[in-house]
Design a protein that fits this description.
The protein is mainly beta. 10% of the residues lie in helices and 41% in strands. It has two helices and twelve strands. It has a five-stranded mixed sheet with strand order 4-10-9-6-7, with no helix packed on it. The protein is extended and about 75 Å long.
């Protein structure tokens, strides 16, 4: 729902002039008789931030970067933590703690990137900011936690953050399980072809 509101809302700080043509008919086939013109304004937009969800698998054919979308913020604080799959339970616990408490918690993993990224100045417009993930992926593949915090919004209490566990891999894993068996297979994320000689744990 938030995604739809962000991308379908009218740009803020704008005045609109709408004219209804006199030939418009109602359900009784009656026309307006004369043109009607209305003028209305849209207030400046509140600050908003939208980014990747809780878990993202990157397209292996695309560059290793992701986009965040913002309205009326001036900058982003970007942090990336290098993680391995065995840190997943700690990541889930970290997210639960964030929602259940107002304390300060540190995500799992090793902090490898911490920087400030400016946002293109475009008041009341949706701005896309690309974040290069490659500094946290020395071999071009792996796992990382991305945390992006916005600042410089229209109101200080509007400061927001998005955070996600991001996986960059050429391998797709599928599994089905019933009461007695688990069946799994490994494919290429690029084209779906089966992969051989892959160790699965």
């Amino acid at each position: 729902e938030f995604r739809r509101v962000l991308f379908r809302s009218k740009p803020g700080g704008t005045t609109y002039r709408v004219t209804l043509d006199k030939s418009i008919k109602d359900k009784f086939n009656q026309t307006l008789g004369r043109d009607l013109t209305f003028t209305f304004g849209v207030a400046p937009s509140h600050s908003k931030l939208l980014g990747p969800d809780n878990f993202v698998v990157m397209d292996p054919a695309a560059p290793t970067r992701c986009s965040v979308f913002s309205i009326n913020y001036t900058g982003l604080k970007v942090r990336m933590y290098s993680v391995t799959p065995d840190a997943w339970p700690k990541w889930m616990a970290y997210q639960k703690n964030l929602h259940d408490s107002k304390g300060v918690f540190t995500p799992p993993g090793r902090l490898v990137v911490s920087k400030i990224v400016p946002i293109r100045n475009a008041p009341n417009e949706i701005v896309a900011t690309n974040i290069d993930l490659s500094p946290a992926l020395p071999n071009g593949r792996g796992h990382l936690i991305l945390i992006v915090e916005a600042f410089g919004g229209t109101r200080s209490e509007d400061d927001e953050r998005v955070q996600s566990w991001i996986q960059v891999s050429n391998i797709g894993l599928d599994a089905f399980v019933d009461q007695t068996d688990l069946v799994g297979w490994v494919t290429s994320l690029k084209d779906g072809t089966p992969l051989s000689n892959v160790d699965v744990t």
